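pasting for the record
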Amino acid sequence: MEPRIQYARTSDGVSIAYCVEGRGSELLWVSPPPFCHVKLDWESFFSHIFPPLAANNRLLWFDWPGTGLSDRDSFDFSIEEMTRVIETVVARAGFEKFAIASLLGGVPIILTYAAKSPDRVTRLILADGWTQPSEHDQSPTWEAERALRGMDWVIYSETFARVLMGYEDEDYARELAQYLRACVEPEAHRAALEAVEHYDVSTLLPAIKIPTLVVQNQKGHWVGIQSGRRLASEITDSRFVPVDDLTYAQLPALIDEFIREGEGSSKRPDFPSGTAVILFADIADSTALTESLGDAAFRQKARELDASLRTIIRDHAGTPIEGKLLGDGVLAVFTSAHQAIEAALDCARSGDDAGLPLHLGIHAGDVIREDNNVYGGAVNIASRISGLSAPGEVLVSDIVRGLARTSAGVRFEDRGAQSLKGVGDPVRVFTVRPV
């Protein structure tokens, strides 16, 4: 389901498009001007960022004046006007106390807002940011962009995406060029960059007392890693995380972990050490799907499905494990076998609807909790059981069947004892069938 597009009106009558999606801690995403389009942000170029953030937070994002689906007839990219736009949007959305995340040219804007309204901001996340023009004036990428800025719009946008951003994935670069042309008209784009490259908020940093996460690419094309180090060193309560992540694929997980730390231990994910019901879901034959769909199309569909699965898991009182790297898989834990089976059946339907059928397996056993991961032999068995399932099929161990057979409202078909790689004794498994 696509987020509902809404509008707020500034004091001078400019309509601002915005969306609110998800549940949980309030998080405001501020896009770097002029790269914003509330609809395409969800479904296109930034689809690996927005749905995952909305899976764990009440996410608010918007289009600047002159961009996206906001009023394009009037635009002012001065940092003072930008902070007023933020004030308008958060008031209209009813946000009271919230975290704010941004990257690149949006970083000086949210620093300005945070300095002005420190009582409303709970956490700051700054990715590839800078505070003054001297930090990027000598950047070869900025110099090349300035030389291209007045060129034909299509040539400029294609060069920007394929050369200046440094993406090796040709499909991803093509998607960025199309996204940029949809976001903004050439005049507004040039005005935005001319304003952004003159933002200077260096004098504000000593006043920022808000817990801050600074994420900086070690080989960033626009600003060097030293800009991130400077930000972190001058903000009192900050943490610096260097990455190699030009597409910002790691950013949602880093943001979620940072926000959860601020919520206190009582709000941390509720997956205990001890016995748990473990669900493992994995996209069936992802290699063939990648070849048939193309890498970019498969990646986008997989991101959307991942966000959908995590929402389904939470709706059934489960906890998706954020800290575990699973490729195309999702791992979750439950305290109820009944809820785990219901979630697995809904996940199977979601995968089928997306054209990405899933292998699904459920087991119950002891787990070890460490940070935001779970470990143990039971996790391995759940993964192996999922690998036995046909696409779209849910398999469970005999333990899970015993826990759920009087309450799950399904029937179980015996598949017999199965030998699982890395597991000493055979495990009896059952196919779950709706009644």
